[in-house]
Amino acid sequence: MKKEAHGFQGWQPNARRHSPTPLGLGHLSHIFTCTDPEANEQPPAASSPKVMKAPANSDEDDVINQIMGDFGPWQLRSLLILFLCKIPAAWFMACILFTAPDLYPEEEYTCDTSSFAPADNCTVSLDQCYVMVNYGDAGYAMRQCRRFLYTTGFHSLTMEFDLVCLCDFFVAWSQYWHLFGLLIGGVAATKLMRVLSPRQIYSAGIWCLLMCSLLMGLVKDFSLHCGLRCLAAISCCFMITSGHSIFSDITAGKHRLGALLLYDCFWALGLILLPGLASGAPSWQHIYLGVTLSLLVIVFLLPWTPDSPRWQLQHAKDTQLAVERTVAILLEAARMNGGILKVSKELPHQLGQLRERMQEQTPPAQWMELWMGDRRSTFRLVAVHMALATFMVVNTGLLLHVRSFGREHLVSNTLAMGLAEMLGCLLALHLTFNRHDQKWQWAGAFAIVVGSIGSICWFLAEADMPEVYGLTLGLLMASLPQAAVSCAQSMILACLSDLVPSEQRSSLSFSAVTWARVWQLSASFLTLLRQVSPALSLSAFCLLVILGGLCTCCLATPVGDREPEGGALPKKQQLITYT
């Protein structure tokens, strides 16, 4: 009795352990070396013959899914770690709002005329950008001011490069290089996934991002700044793409679909946290320093960041090494999820058989095969490409458009845009699970309605009303389209697999997202319309929202291809996702 009591006290599955390795290795050693057949026999309650004896050609309920389950504490921990990469991605996208704010002429900067002529012979324009120099009998000459004297306390990037008169063009050009990095990073990460594991790409992305963030806070050259922004965007896309691949592999069913829909919630969370990080900084360098220090949290969590078990099993060159790595991942998941008894002595053999089946799968369809269907399917493919492109352009453009409401309201407007994006993701989750058959039409109709409401800002711009009312209406007309865009965009990225057969999913994902990111490059330059009128810029984005809503309403899930709340294992993962 003493021995039994002592043994019972030693087994405490809920107690905190210094490391999960001893338990996992002990159980692994037992099931792989024990020769007693009764010792490895599974109890009836823990394992059902119907579950363990899946068909040989079934990829929907393989041994990996049987051990890990659809969702559990291990998947929850992994999702929270992987979702964190969205926060710095949002910071690097939107930090230009705080590192290069608008400055007020005469109040915060004046033209330095010492390089032209004595001050008595110079007449400066009201915007402090042009100087009329009096040369006496030789006449007058109009010069563009290139050096300025600053009186503001915050040292911005436009002050660093003396581009206060070209602030809008500087923001558009700098943001263009960030968007170009997202385009290159998505394509590169997808191609690298053939030879490098998702976790290796994720780790390379965070270390490269940490280095780029540190250098961006130190360099004072405009060309280097743009180049580092491009490299930082590539690193962010590496993390987002590989993280998407990992959590798509370790979750299944409705839990995977929910994770795909909520992936952008952490992007919105990053926008909400950005004003708190940047509002009290005395210079743009301190903002990048704060972002760099925050990245150390993700670096600290790297040991707990999982890898994709199916990628390891399918792509590792050596069979034994592939099985060992997959077993290690499965044991950790089973231990934390409480399913360690599901691991049998036949696990290596079952994984070997699964590896053979995965390597014998037919390759994904080529891009041209997407367009060889009937007219209806081709029309839907065109619609999803157009919808995703317009939504990505509007998502980036509306975020930059908050500069039009004034620097004094930058913090509140950024918070409002982040909250709008989060509400849009939650709305997409609700529509997908509760309006499954009409989800596309609901999302498209919402986009059309709010886009139409936002378009009337052109008429309100000329109305005579108090400033506070004008700012409130302007913010409302920008936040509602942002929520609609976030809803439809999250739904499209999460449910692209519903539109085509399984063998065409990866080709459609790559094609649609790459096409959308090409058009996304124009978003930063559309914001230059605010120099004519802020209402013109907002109206242009709202018209694009209406166009995207119309295209979304044209989408429909084929009846024969509908799957109940997502399959347990997509045959080819969607390797590119929105950033």
TrEMBL record:
Region annotation (Disordered) ranges: 1-21
Cellular localization per UniProt: Membrane
Transmembrane segments: 79-100, 169-189, 201-219, 260-281, 287-305, 381-402, 414-433, 440-461, 535-556
Taxon lineage: Eukaryota, Metazoa, Ecdysozoa, Arthropoda, Hexapoda
Protein name, UniProt field: Solute carrier family 22 member 3
GO molecular function: transmembrane transporter activity
Coiled-coil spans in chain: none
Membrane topology: Multi-pass membrane protein
Keyword Transmembrane: yes
Entry keyword set: Membrane, Transmembrane, Transmembrane helix
Gene3D superfamilies hit by this protein: MFS general substrate transporter like domains (1.20.1250.20)
One Gene Ontology cellular component annotation held by this UniProt entry: membrane
